[in-house]
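Many introductory courses stop at the sequence. We go one step further.
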Amino acid sequence: MRQNTLPVNGPVTVSVENVGGDLQIVGWERAEVTAKTDDNKLEMTGDGETIHASSDGDLILYVAREAAVRILNVGGDADLRALAGSVEVTNVGGDLQMRNVGAVRIVSVGGDLSMRGCAGSFQANSVGGDASLHEIKGDVEIIVGADLYLRGAEGNVKAQVGSDAALYLHPLPGTDVNLQAGSDVLLRLPAKANVELELQGCDDESIRVDLPGVEPVQVGMSRQVLMGSGGAKIRALAGSEVIVTSRDEEWDNVAEFDPLGRDGPFAPGEFPGLSSELHERISRRVEEATRRALESSMRAQEQSGHVQRRVDAAMRRAEEKMRSAERRSMHMGIKVGRFGVGFDRPGAPPVPPIPPRPPAEPVTDEERLTILKMLQEKKISLQDAEKLLAALDGK
């Protein structure tokens, strides 16, 4: 472990040249920059206007809140919080998580991208995985390889999405939204929005509109809808289905598919958004698992093959429950793509009954230990850990 601190005087740019592992940057009120790393190599220099930092391992930086941040390369994951200045990212090999930052410009993220709270415009030229964006004050421009979940954009939006796109919008007069998705598109709009819609799907029955006073279905691959007096414009092109709705309950179902919108595992010892009871229960489980790991690590290694098979089985059971929920939702007339939301087409064949599942084997401490260790090591999210533990218990 190495640490270094440099004082700053006035506006400063923090340039992170290279990080071999994970990067975490947190803004604070002190007129100084502090760097910590778990590696023996820590480089941090300053010339009055710019501070340069690099590490071959994991790196934690505490910087003045108003500082501008420039990140050239991160080999692992990156987490940025409480930064009022602008943020520029050239490359993050893993996942990128951002909370309460200024204007953002990103060249490349290899994994998933999660943003909650951007005070300016947001641009991401390439996101390899999923993207979850919440509360963007300025314009949004993004290219996503997988799914996009966007809620709370106040400016123009331009998005190219490889798979599904779900947008919760309150379009302001004069704003313009251009969306292209490889699979499904879901738009949630206020019932009294003033917007002009241009929609295009994959076939004559792929566009569904659930808005007050609007015919739900019209035959054709494209459709135009005028809500109120117009004023804003939304163009949506989907490789599969397009659904426009004003119903909250359908959007709530989609929100369950936004795990990136929840706080991630970078804040040790706390799980934001959980009740105090659940927080205490999870923390207690992690502490117990840590103690057991120290006492029985050799035994866990010997049985790792068996444990992994049981964990895989638990994952399959969890996936089966999710598919079962999707099939139940189809009986209720709600389905579209991965989102599980929409309107069944007339004449859809009935869903066959689900065969009974064989009784589960008793759960061992090693299985729970493996899941909780994966949570501690940030290999899975808290939500995934809870699902796995519940699946192991047969709940």
